[in-house]
Amino acid sequence: MSAGRRKLCVIMMLNVFVCLLVCVTWNLRRHKSGRHKVRIPSERFWHRQEESKSFWNKEQQRLDFLFNPIVNSLLSSDSLIELPDWLNNTGPPDLCEPDNRVPMQIMDYNSLPKGFQDFLLHMRCRTYPMLINQPHICKGKPFLLLAVKSLIPHFDRRQAIRETWGRAGVIANRSVVTVFLLGNTLPVDHFPDLLGMLDHEAKLHKDVLQWDYRDTFYNLTLKEVLFLEWFSEHCPHGQFILKGDDDVFVNTVRIVDLLEGLPEKKAKDLFIGDVINDAGPHRNRRLKYFVPESVFVGLYPTYAGGGGYLYSGELALRLHNASRQVVLYPIDDVYTGMCLKKLGLAPEKHEGFRTFGIDAKYRDNPCVYRNLMLVHSCTPQEMLAIWPWIIHPELACQ
């Protein structure tokens, strides 16, 4: 047999083998009754979402719907998509105008604290003018940015931080810079007019950031969002951020030491602090953190106490993007936990963060502060007393 005929025979045999294989596979996939098996879902694949009766949850449902990639593709095409009626109830076109739907949709609105009412009326507004900026602060691409939440009247706290743990410059051979985050104070909140003094402070120290919004407990979340926006624009190359209150003491030396030893992969998603699990809203109206069922139902995600936490600059950029998909919530640390959850992340607990303070018997022990990262709360006088314990090498601790 010639080579050409042998090649033709091999090809024909291969074709026959393939046909037999296809037939066997086809038969194996048939049911005993002779019909093909078809996998039918036991439940509906697409559920029509029911409107929540709690205001925040309903607003979040709307954002989840609008940020759904499938819905987005349909809305951007010529496809017809029918929105539930409640999703079309969008409120005023100008998101910074008071939302007059709120008093009608939250049955116990009139019984809420005035600051809470103000937050709910302006919950959709995220755009506020910046009154004082320091765009130069990150030109050197700092290793650690200390972002401190403060109020205009807290001049003594800010000065104590500048002279202790928030001292800008080089610490443990790493560059550290500090910014203080402020809103505006209004006479209705019984604050005196201290803007002249603040303007002088900002020009003198060049470390104050201020936005023109009402600076209240319920607007701390807004401070968080505005800071993330500022960071994304003016400090995107900052490697790490320590964000805390102006009444915490931070062991900056130990923080820098921890960060220097981090593997690159761990540093990317770093978010550590004093972690709270399985928490939910307080329903006692006398408590500062009270949130009624008319506003929110459900459990909180895992979050780190807002007194202070440490995270990477790269994660801050992702949190900025994620925050656009999460409705503002009146408790800032819970809100940050919600944004982390959107990214599929959760904060990691670190024993060095004590946002609920330390026992009174340890408060005068220098060696205790040497081994901790952050302690809440401290007066300016206590900060000035503790800092020398951190930086003096002659203090021996086991």
- Known CATH architecture of the domain at 130-391: Alpha-Beta Complex
Instruction: State the CATH class of the domain at 130-391.
Output: Alpha Beta
Run of helices and strands: HHHHHEEHEEHEHEEHHEEHHEEHEH
Q: What's the alpha carbon Rg, rounded to whole Å?
A: 29 Å
Oligomeric state of this protein = single chain
Features:
single chain; 398 residues; alpha/beta; Spore Coat Polysaccharide Biosynthesis Protein SpsA, Chain A; 3-stranded mixed sheet; 37% helix; 16% strand; disordered N terminus
Compact overview of the structure:
The protein has 14 helices and 12 strands. Helix 8 (220-234) crosses helix 11 and helix 8 (220-234) crosses helix 12. The chain is an alpha/beta fold and 398 residues long.
Structure description:
This protein is of the alpha/beta class and 398 residues long. It has a domain at 130-391: Spore Coat Polysaccharide Biosynthesis Protein SpsA, Chain A (Alpha-Beta Complex), CATH 3.90.550.50. The protein has 14 helices and twelve strands. The strands form two sheets. Strands 1, 2, 3, 4, 5, 6, 8, 9 and 10 form a nine-stranded mixed β-sheet that branches. Strands 7-12-11 form a three-stranded mixed β-sheet, with no helix packed on it. The chain starts with a helix and ends in a 7-residue tail after the last helix. The model is unreliable at 3-12 and 16-46 (pLDDT under 50).
